[in-house]
Amino acid sequence: MLDFLGSMANRVFLILLAGIIVATTATTYLAARERHLTIAEMRNQHAAERVEQLVQALDAAAPETRRQILLANGNFGVEARLVDTLDAGADNNSGLIGLLKARLGEDRRIVVSHEAACTARRARRFGAPPHWPEVCQTIFISLQDGALLRMKLHNPDVHPPFGHGPYYGPYLGVFLLLIGLLAFVVARMTARPIKQLAIAAGELGRDIDRAPLPETGPPEIRQAATAFNAMQARIRRQIQHRTHMLAAITHDLQTPLTRLRLRIEKVADAELRNKLIDDMAVMQSMVREGLELARSMDSAEPMQRLDIDSLLNSVCADASDAGQDVTLEGRAGVLVMAQPGALRRCLTNVIDNAVKYGRYARVTAAHEHDKIAIRIRDGGQGIPEEQLEAVFEPFQRLESSRSRDTGGTGLGLTIARNIAENHRGSLALRNHPGGGLEATLRLPAQ
Predict the structure, then answer these.
(1) Burial (0-12, 13-18, 19+ Cβ within 10 Å), 167
(2) Contacts of 232 (CB under 8 A, 6+ apart)
(3) Chain-wide mean pLDDT for the chain?
(4) Tens of pLDDT along 137-196?
(5) CA distance 441 to 193
(6) Distance (Å, rounded) from C-alpha 228 to C-alpha 83?
(7) In the chain, what are the domain boundaries?
(8) CA angle 240, 351, 341 (to 5 degrees)
(9) Which residue, of 3, 9, 27, 102, is most buried by count of CB atoms within 10 Å of its CB?
(10) How far apart, in whole angstroms, are the C-alpha atoms of residue 50 and residue 123?
């Protein structure tokens, strides 16, 4: 249940459903109450009219003919007879009593009694449904000569029992189905823009150049979409400015570094010259890695459909030709949309890192659901669990000596992850249970 309530659409659905049911119940109650008052008034008017007609007929008739009049009215749903005393308690139906006194005069003695169940013959009139219970009103009224008339009227009850009737169940089921469907549609319509915004925010982290959100819909949704698109544009500009600045700095450093190297070559002291040349090589390597980092963040290389198995064979073959212990197993058997040069750089960096710190690289490829999984495992000692993410930070190296002869520049894995994310993929590290460090590159399959 908690998982169901965790969704905003489901919460809106339940709120709407409960609100509609409560509002409908209240409206139905008020309508039924008003209907009860209206029907009760009409019933009293009708009863008063019938009583008035009978009383006037009896007042005008001779005592010996009254029996025939009473028998004739019995055929029209009125049970009437002359009695000597009251045989029922008084009721509080002041409305009917008031109508009768207004019609027959204030000097009449009138008593109205209400019976919960009718034992006399029931008269079905006015199209009352058969499942409605009847109520009986017993009226005692004095005639002009002092005789006491007892009348029993049969009327359908104004309040039918709740839930009675052959069509009540289907009606209720259809009603609940319709309001449930309405609440569901409204909830989905309400939550759809927020869901689209959440999806766009998730995609933004993987592809800064994704298409902007459509600025349509209600004013609030358009305002949110406009703000999101403006944020995306600002982030894209900041990344471009940072990338261009890094590329410009590293590019401009190459010329003075080249001149400096030429001057170092003229140093007479051979030992000093060699040390300076080594330091210069490190600086030039850092500049090259900086350029590669800039390119990995904003590559202009076009995307194209690529056979990942062919690319893996080529990269592993080049590594083996260079003297590295690299083997490839398995086939993905699918294509990917990729920048061939950038993806080759990504794979090369990860394989070089495995060989450099783990002696060898065992590469496997597989098609898993809608992803291609490329795993590269080395034979090293692994790294601490808390450092598995830190190694992807720029210039992050784990060697305690901080020596660039063994640690490199610390940009290789940073570049590799940037390239993977530019391809809507991911790159992660883990310490393999069988020993060594395993890098897993996942890319969307075509």
Answers:
(1) exposed
(2) 204, 208, 210, 212
(3) 80
(4) 788 888 888 888 888 877 665 555 555 556 667 887 888 888 888 888 888 888 888 888
(5) 32
(6) 89
(7) 2-156, 211-297, 299-444
(8) 40
(9) 9
(10) 15
CATH of domain 211-297: 1.10.287.130
pLDDT in tens, 212-240: 888 888 888 888 889 989 998 998 888 77
Tell me the C-alpha distance between 74 and 56, whole Å.
16
Phi/psi class of residue 395: alpha, beta or left (left: φ > 0; alpha: ψ in -120 to 50)?
Answer: left
3-state SS of the chain is CHHHHCCHHHHHHHHHHHHHHHHHHHHHHHHHHHHHHHHHHHHHHHHHHHHHHHHHHHHHCCHHHHHHHHHHHHCCCEEEEEECCCCCCCCCCHHHHHHHHHHHCCCCCEEEEEECCCCCCCCCCCCCCCCCCEEEEEEEEECCCCCEEEEEEEEECCCCCCCCCCCHHHHHHHHHHHHHHHHHHHHHHHHHHHHHHHHHHHHHHHCCCCCCCCCCCCHHHHHHHHHHHHHHHHHHHHHHHHHHHHHHHHHHHHHHHHHHHHHHCCCCCHHHHHHHHHHHHHHHHHHHHHHHHHHHHCCCCCCEEEEHHHHHHHHHHHHHHCCCEEEEECCCCCEEEECHHHHHHHHHHHHHHHHHHHCEEEEEEEEECCEEEEEEECCCCCCCHHHCCHHHCCCCCCCCCCCHHHHCCCCHHHHHHHHHHHCCCEEEEEECCCCCEEEEEEEECC
**pTM metric for this prediction:** 0.51
The residue whose two tokens read 């080759």 is 344
Quick one: tokens of 423? 């391809």
